[in-house]
Amino acid sequence: MIAIIARKELLALYRDRRVLILGLGLLAVWAMLYAAALGQQQRQQAERAEIGETTRAQWDKQGIKHPHRGAHFGMYAFRPHAPLSAFDPGIEPYVGQALWLEPHRRNMARFNPAADGGPGARFGHIAPAFLLAGLFPLLIMALAFSQATQERELGTLRMLQSMGVSNRALLAGKLLAITGCLTAVFLPVFALLALGAIGELAPAGLLPRIAGLAAVYLLYYLITAALGLAVGAFSAGSRGALFVLAVVWAVFVLAAPRAASAIAQGSVPLPSGSQFWAAIAHDYKHGLPGDPDLATQVRDFEAGLLRRYGVASLSQVPIGVNAARRLLRDAYADKVHAHHFDALWARYMRQQRLLRWAGVFSPTIPLAATSAALSGTSLAHQRHFEEAAEQYRQAFNASIDEWDMAHTHGQVSYETEYAADSVWQSVRPFQYSPPSLGFSLRTAGPDLMLLAGWAVAAIGLLGAAARRWQP
After folding, report:
1. DSSP label at 248?
2. Is residue 388 part of a domain?
3. Given a cut of 80, is residue 1 above it in pLDDT?
4. High-pLDDT (> 90) share of the chain, %
5. 384-415: per-residue pLDDT in tens?
6. Any domain includes 374
7. CA triplet 44, 46, 49: central angle to 5 degrees?
8. Is residue 120 predicted with pLDDT exceeding 50?
9. Are 65 and 417 in contact (CB under 8 A)?
10. Domain residues for 318?
11. Which of 177, 363, 380, 425 has the fewest CB atoms found within 10 Å of its own CB?
């Protein structure tokens, strides 16, 4: 019975040219948005590659100089665009694109596109993912509720009930038909997505991500269609159902995400930049809890060098003492920076958990989080990049100080120009390997569970509406 009803409803939707025209129109709008976003992404990626090559060439050819001064020349580490960031940029427009790598200090990412774009860019940018998550559900709800209210208003509900058709079977058939129609409309969207991103990532890594995105968005549309049918069955008329669904859409898409973001920021405030760096400077000089101050650490280290080499003064030590001392201080600076950066990331994660709890009031919130995770543009992916760049910074700075330590001796590293281009070129270029699909799924696990819970709740509400649906 349900299959027969679904075929009948699909045929009706096919004959209704408005649905076909609307679907093709939305597909065309989405394709234009995605093409524009993809073009912008490719231009930005070309700019990053050019700047990265230029800065690397400057590093390789900085000439003969003291190795530590050469290390202070520094370099940039650019995060490559995620292959699906043109579809869902996630947090990428609001976080830095590059990290400045230098000795002694771990920096924050800088040059975020939202700040570089100026005020006018905020009004002209609509991400393709927002079109799917924010605007399409309103049209789906409008299509779904009318399928229920028209049966009552046209008098066909009484006739169907007199023929023994149950409300549950009728609504299930309608939901199945709407889902089939949505699948037909939106599968070309993800096919275009695959074509647009195929050059960015190996198909083995790309296609599962796109398949996951398609499944998640279709689950979201199933939720909105079930809610639309349920409201239509509960309502006495089309006008009341349309008003209720408009309010529901506004809460889901506009009110709940913004309210949740404001609550999260107010509940878990972030330190100001001056407070953050002042705390790092204090702990570096005076020591973290349980550690002696830096001066004491340096004295103990120097005494250890004298004992290790069996000499009476630092000038007799057969390695470069200044370089060895820098390695000690930098290792402790790395420890202090890691402590404070981990605490900062912990605050970010607490904010994200509060946002996740707000997903109880809106399925759009877990959808957005899952979409960003599968697209590689979530907060967890940004942290993965920054941690990789920090490990690279520590490694290449340590390698230069180790070279200096091995090629000098005594307390004073000779300030002669003895480090040539071969030293700078020995530092391997920064190569970033993005995390796997499994990483994305693990970070999105709670959000996927929330979406599944919404689906169960929406189907349950539709079942309750079926029991109360009367002519």
Report:
1. H
2. yes
3. no
4. 47
5. 999 999 999 999 999 999 998 988 887 665 55
6. yes
7. 110
8. no
9. yes
10. 63-81+97-110+271-450
11. 425
| Amino acid letter for position 64 | I
CA 382, 386, 392, 393: dihedral to nearest 10 degrees?
160
Q: Are 18 and 146 in contact (CB under 8 A)?
A: no
User: Cα(first)–Cα(last) distance of the chain, in Å?
Assistant: 20
Q: What are 187's two structure tokens?
A: 């599968």
Tell whether 2 is covered by a domain: no
For residues 465 and 470, give the distance between their C-alpha atoms in angstroms, rounded to a whole number.
10
Residues 6 or more apart whose Cβ sits within 8 Å of residue 46? none
Q: What is the pLDDT of residue 123?
A: 44
CB 94 within 8 A of CB 261: no
Tokens describing residue 43? 């231009």
3-state helix, strand, coil in the chain (%, to 5): 75, 5, 20
Please count the structural domains in the chain: 1
Write out the two tokens for 205: 């890594």
Q: How far apart are CA 213 and CA 372, in angstroms?
A: 10
* Nearest in space to 407 (alpha carbons), one of 316, 322, 320: 320
Beta-strand ranges (E) seen in 72-201 are 75-78, 98-101
| pTM reported for the whole predicted model | 0.90
Under DSSP, the state recorded for 103 is: T
Q: Can you read off the two tokens belonging to residue 97?
A: 């694109």
More confident residue, 200 or 264: 264
**What three-state secondary structure class fits 419?**
strand
Query: Largest Cα–Cα distance of the chain, in whole Å?
Result: 106
